[in-house]
Model the fold of this input.
Amino acid sequence: MRRYALSLLALACTLASSGQTRTLSGFSEAAARTQFALEEKFDSYLKASNVDHHIKEMSARPHHVGSPGGQAVADYILNQFKSWGYQVEMETFYVLFPTPKERLLEMSGAATYKALLKEPALKEDATSGQFSEQLPTYNCWSADGDVTASLVYVNYGLPEDYDMLDRMGIDVKGKIVIAKYGRSWRGIKPKVAQEHGALGCIIYSDPMDDGYFQGDVYPKGAFKNEYGVQRGSVMDMPIYPGDPLTPGTGATKEAVRLDRKDATNLLHIPVLPISYHDAEPLLRALEGPVAPDGWRGALPFTYHVGPGKAQVHLKLSFNWDMKPLHDIIARMPGSELPDEWIIRGNHHDAWVNGAGDPISGQAAMLEEARAFSELARTGWKPKRTLIYCAWDGEEPGLMGSTEWAETHEAELQQKAVAYINSDGNGRGFLGAEGSHALEPFINEVARDVIDPETGISVLNRRLAVDLVNGKNKKELLAKKTLSIGALGSGSDFSPFIQHIGIPSFNLGYGGEDPGGEYHSIYDSYDDYRRFKDPSFIYGVTLAQTAGRTAMRLADAELLPFDFTSLSRTISGYATELMAFTDQLRDVTALENQVIREKYYALAGDPTVRLLAPPARQEVPYLNFSDLQNTLLSLQQSAARLSAALAKPGLAAGRQLQVNQALYRAEQQLLTRQGLLRRGWYRHSIYAPGFYTGYGVKTLPGIREAIEQRNWKEAQEQIEVAAGVIRQFAAYLDSVTQLVP
Amino acid sequence: MRRYALSLLALACTLASSGQTRTLSGFSEAAARTQFALEEKFDSYLKASNVDHHIKEMSARPHHVGSPGGQAVADYILNQFKSWGYQVEMETFYVLFPTPKERLLEMSGAATYKALLKEPALKEDATSGQFSEQLPTYNCWSADGDVTASLVYVNYGLPEDYDMLDRMGIDVKGKIVIAKYGRSWRGIKPKVAQEHGALGCIIYSDPMDDGYFQGDVYPKGAFKNEYGVQRGSVMDMPIYPGDPLTPGTGATKEAVRLDRKDATNLLHIPVLPISYHDAEPLLRALEGPVAPDGWRGALPFTYHVGPGKAQVHLKLSFNWDMKPLHDIIARMPGSELPDEWIIRGNHHDAWVNGAGDPISGQAAMLEEARAFSELARTGWKPKRTLIYCAWDGEEPGLMGSTEWAETHEAELQQKAVAYINSDGNGRGFLGAEGSHALEPFINEVARDVIDPETGISVLNRRLAVDLVNGKNKKELLAKKTLSIGALGSGSDFSPFIQHIGIPSFNLGYGGEDPGGEYHSIYDSYDDYRRFKDPSFIYGVTLAQTAGRTAMRLADAELLPFDFTSLSRTISGYATELMAFTDQLRDVTALENQVIREKYYALAGDPTVRLLAPPARQEVPYLNFSDLQNTLLSLQQSAARLSAALAKPGLAAGRQLQVNQALYRAEQQLLTRQGLLRRGWYRHSIYAPGFYTGYGVKTLPGIREAIEQRNWKEAQEQIEVAAGVIRQFAAYLDSVTQLVP
Done:
């Protein structure tokens, strides 16, 4: 690794904000000094070689849910925690987990092909040949099915792609669709295909997005080779995650279970992921119109939309077995406040060997936990209880975390101060999403962790990257703090934040570790040490980051929640939504005029079938005033609370009460009934998008109603959100009352 | 072809502006009625079958400069004009025209390959096998050369691509470069390569821009197959076009000629165009960094920048022969004003068979000329002289038109009212660029020609397409007139407008005729009738458009020049330049700050070599006031002239004087000394870009100085332009004085 010259390090110092008198929210000056010293000690225990060792050990065999390898990894983690003196238990749930029984994809007619559906072993990758233990390439939660039909190429398989198909006069009803991976969470593609009447769905990795177009392919480089396949869940997680048979309840042995046919987050059509090697003959055989601009990939022929003369036969069946989930829960009890919990989690199950996803994050978490045990040996104890969770069953649908959170919901809502998640980790820049009341807090953490490549803080490195890649350089040059993203879905934070209202973070490093190994047999130790974090140093950086986050929350005198930050963020979302509605109104009116005056027909090539888009209902003016007024109150309430908390000296009794009130505040943003049509999601500010999956929708009730052009619902949801925020402001006022 | 239902035709009527009382600038109401009747008659003579016949005949054999086929096409055209009663002559010039003697491209070392450099015959294309008469694939005006070196991929080979190479630490000095066709005129690529010290330049057609990524390839579809090669000139036409040995003078037999080594528009390095079949092994053998985003094409591997271990050997030699150019000049003398000329032109030489380029335009022009001869038989005569020109030698460098214009410069500046150019033509939308004093006039023409596919005017169809494809729909919905483009280079209008100041147009149809046949052996009759204009009806539409343009200018009582339109346009260019300078200032200042504060280094991946861009000189404030004040005067002068001309009844004697003054006005925009470093270009408002080639630069002296960040020159050029415009305004005032 190239080392930076002194000039850069000097610069780094000028960049670091307020280097001399670093403050720490929630700590007195004296306590902060103690804390900084502890953190230095903590850092000194962290070893990249341990991260390396953990990754090698835990990725040595395939270890998906219910596998011998999975049991071995769970045992490994349990034993590690045990050896470090944690109170550790294995908590087991019983969940549905389908694995492939039969997989067949073949094409007949004008052209014939039988798909390989197989990733070959590579001599450069030591674990790639463990065929007997590997899960075959498949999408978990595909339906059983045996369908034969012609094929239609649907680009990324998103709603707007079907709008374009409509314009081209192509109907997927009764057909099989083939969609590219990308632009949405994979589960959206078969869901939308099913909504449009498709009989089956094939998802492939196009080399433009995930293959040779991006860079040299594995094993020469890191990118997806022609045989690589992305496995993955296609559960309709935007409805609910976790075991499909126990929505809202822990999947304990004795839990009452749904009949599988009644699970509303399962598909009815078969879905199969394939490589671009297998996709090529299928796509080549398509006829019909040339794929529009933006639909074309990097395979060496002209992409057509289809259908063609060939018939595609897709036959899939699965073992719909119940499997045990092994969550490892390790505790280091708090010395003063054992009933206030700082929860730290990372899953341990993988689709195959999973050196990157999730083991790199799991390894960093173990090293972090070990360092705390070392610190504990020197006499330190966390004031609050630290709980380390190694989740099983994240890959099929956040099952280990969801079932645990559902099982312990009541206790968690009493005791959990925050949940800190990580997942795969690699070389690069800090990624941080989370609860915005903790945004100033996480900025302090990022200020105090040093990027191993440049010697500046990970905060400043992230700001530098945003600046260099960003468009609005003027604004970005002035920006000194990191605006953290909102949490969508895609990892284990989801049940904590969105279902039970625990303040949450998702932390990780990446951006200098691109590749195509994701959910393939090539996500291996050999791949990781070449392309992801060769010196394993970003494992240490993650341990420093999440460790500081956990320790500061565990030891803070006053929990560092800042609701003015949350208030500002929500107001920003509301402003965005108002601007979006105004823009949608203008665009719709103009577009309707263009359609009404038949310009599409006049401009169109009469030899090409491309209908005008349908006119849309004009966008009414929505009444946002209730939301706006409420946000003004929230701003005032948050400011009053901040002012009250800024006064030094909170009486000990009151401190306990105030801290509890602070960390439970996030729960006030939940509604009892949850979001419409998907009541498992109860947070009013953050939710995964119904049609994006991982991608977050902020103020989701309002936003998705507007996006779906349901104006009545949008207006109702404005009132619902205003109600929640009004109640939240009142809650903050009640906390302010607690402060003497 | 699909026919539109009545509703569209009804709509068309509502769209046609002022359908009932159509006015015609320069004609009294009575004269306009006569003119419309004549135009209807003229239209009735035009036959698509004749266009078809001409295209088939003239594209039957390869007919490049100096070939037997070229002589045959010239004779064909001459005989057609003769048979229609035109006064026709063949005017011959003698020019340098290099053709290949030896072409070799091979790769040795780690990988070996010998390039085919050959387009195969196809059974679906009857003329593709005429090998003995075809020019091989080459770039005309490449230097002789025999070079062996490693290869570097330079994207499109533009100055900004070399900036990126600098950032990657890659120097092309002493190497051979390979560039993609596209984004600039081809001649720019070897010129910039030579400026950077490259020994040779290979240009290839990437399938992403020109091949299977765009659509099905020939002969299945219209797009470039793997063997197709784009021939073409790499003369440095932004210096001067025409015979390189006779800049500024006609290349008559007795003309004094430069020594070839003294021609400033010829390259010193060898250049060769190749197919993507031939490019693939060369590109595959490259090593070094992965090509940046936006550099990658659609060949099925990872693009690297190079160099690699392989050596490339490029050996080219040429026959540097003198060849005769046969321009056909056909006249229909004016009945009242024989010394006022309306000149209409289209070239006849092709790189190979050239059914599309240029024969489709030539065929339409012939049919237009025939229709006038039919009209003449009914007793009509044009008031002014119509001159039809079929140019030779356009492909190597606008030679036939340039030598003719240079030879007859003085007479043309006296007599030429306007030059109307066309070139290849196809199915689609009107394209019109030209002198902005004639913008309102050409709008009237476009208003009165009906699009054969939709039944609305070609004006409204063009506006509809601009609207549907445009971003600013609000503005475009309100737009009722066509803003014509400015003339850059790339066809025979260039000497007329830019060298001798004759008001000019370039007219043609296209946009529904994409394909990859350009300058290949597949630009054939078989290709044309399948993919370009299958019913040949747009040949008729072009004849209607250019024919009306010519006839109205020939018969107008008052020539329809509108200098308020020109004044508005130039003011628009000035506003653009001021905004551009301001924006450049902001961007430069910000970018310099980002560089100065070392953000590139902080954000960069230390394992990837990518230097920060160099800081640039800050952009000073330029004094545009002289130009702004002058433009204000021009606006007033133009308005006064328009008002004077709007008064009815110009005495006959004065009318002659006024009309002459009007059509000679454009010459007042020339400067004696021409543009800096390329004095052949004398127009102050329009020039081809020094680094874009075909692409126009408006107010070129100022604009290119700003783009090159030469602030001193920019300020001087503002004064130069202001001086020209001041003089032009005074000229308009003098014309106003002529009006009684």
About this structure: Chain A has 24 helices and 17 strands. The longest strand of chain A covers residues 87-108.
